[in-house]
Amino acid sequence: MERTLARLRCAEDDVSAPANAAWRGVGAPAPLRCAEAGCGATAIEGNTCPRCGGLLEFDAPQGIGRDAVLQILRERRASSSPADRSGVWRYRELLPQIDVDRVVSLDENEIPLQTAPRGAAWAGLDGAAVYHCGRNPSGSFKDAGMTVAVSFAAARGSRAALCASTGNTSAAMAAYAARAGMGAFVLAPAGGVSAAKIAQTLAYGARVLTIEGDFDDALTLARDVGAASRAVALVNSVDPYRIEGQKCVAYAILEQRGWRAPDWVVLPGGNLGNVSALGKGFREALALGLADRLPRLAVVQAAGSAPFAQAWERGDDLVPVKAQTVASAIRIGNPVSWRKARRELQACNGLALAVSDDEILEARRVIGRDGLGCEPASAASLAGARALRRRGVMQPGDDVVCILTGHVLKDSSVPEPAAPEPVAATVDAVLGVMLKEKE
Ligand code: F0G
């Protein structure tokens, strides 16, 4: 059994003590601190600062150095144990501590960097790498965070997991909760989620409750329900465990590149948990001596759902919007992690920008031509890279990694060119069409 005792600091004295006593397989819950600048409060569990209502986060890993991490990773490469193979749990010394036999894993974040020559050319780049999180067990980047969130929720005795979702969080939660033997409940915005994602979530046995309102309304409600019941684990990205899992994408990218950071990592942004997680991962890797420098993070929003990109360009605080975009996964108007995201962008000289729905759909088609494919929200990353090239912010020779966040089968509801007329069932008719297409 791997077990490390962390020292506890209780901010709220008696409130969390009984629940903590029941945590099984966790040496001791690691202290969380408020992520708001200057607040300084600490807590042991939950997702909201007891003092200021901000989000909580874990401290950077301590007590381990670069050489030890590299040695451990070398040894794990020869191992066939699921926790050693997982692209999250093989970095477990850099995560909150839990017994390995309590880990709920589905082989997440085992993803190779791939080239995307047509995508790169379209964006005006000499080359670009793609990190396609659609290869995850439930088909999106959410799995990297969900394995950590659900493992800890199960260890602390939660009976059910809950999330608000535009569809990918719900599918990931449903898969991992099923694996853990927990119930799973989703609050889905009415009419705002792709049918494929709902079907996938139901297939893992979760209950889906359609909520009147949009994603932002559903998340507010989910946070209230989570706060009202200790038996329920809220696993949206306000959960600091989710962020710990998703930060491993940064480690995995660096590891594959011999710990050399790219110039840029470009990713779509909705609720902004993912950019917060990647920023934390890269910063921690640099502090541990694992990375040579920080890559610049570029977070790309859809123009109709871009309150963060607008705030970034104004140099001001976020003003929520009523979100609209064809990319339903990132149809979010009041991103909960925007302060964390801003801090991460400031730390790495990053930036936020918006691209139009047309650019997103065009990028999606181009990514398809590379044989990769992705859902619309994911394609915002390549569309963002192209916009940055056009502005002259990115140079043709820059070393760029685009994160594709979800699988092509996740969302087929986007307007594509109209289906052609049916063709007569004869060889001549079919060949006629094929030859015409070739021209
Ligand atoms: N890309 C995809 C495919 C997503 O599903 C999401 C978020 C994002 C990007 C944005 O990530 O919120 O961390 O900035 N999907 C959430 C969900 C909201 O419920 O599945 P973020």
Give an overview in words.
This protein has 439 residues and is α/β, with parallel strands linked by helices. Helix content is 38%, strand content 13%. The chain has helices spanning 17-21, 66-77, 82-85, 117-123, 142-155, 168-180, 195-203, 215-228, 240-246, 248-256, 273-287, 307-314, 338-347, 357-369, 376-390, 427-438, and strands spanning 32-34, 42-43, 56-58, 113-115, 129-132, 160-164, 183-189, 207-211, 232-234, 264-268, 296-302, 351-355, 400-404. α11 (273-287) links the parallel β10 (264-268) and β11. The longest helix is centred in the middle third of the chain and has 15 residues, at 273-287. The chain is globular, with a radius of gyration of 22 Å. The N and C termini lie far apart (64 Å). It binds ligand F0G. Residues 140, 165-169, 237, 268-274, 329-330, 375, 377-378, 405-406 line the site of ligand F0G.
In the predicted model, the low-confidence regions spanning at least 5 consecutive residues are 1-19
The major β-sheet equals:
6 strands, mixed
Q: Overall mean pLDDT score?
A: 93
Computed over alpha carbons, the radius of gyration is 22 Å
Give the N-to-C terminal Cα separation.
64 Å
Total beta strand runs: 13
Widest sheet, order of strands: 4-5-13-10-11-12
Give the number of helices. 16
Which secondary-structure class do the elements indicate?
Answer: alpha/beta
Bound molecules: ligand F0G
Question: Shape from CA axes?
Answer: globular
- List the helices and strands in order: HEEEHHEHEHEHEHEHEHHEHEHHEHHEH
- Fraction of helical residues: 25-40%
What is the percentage of strand-forming residues?
A: 5-15%
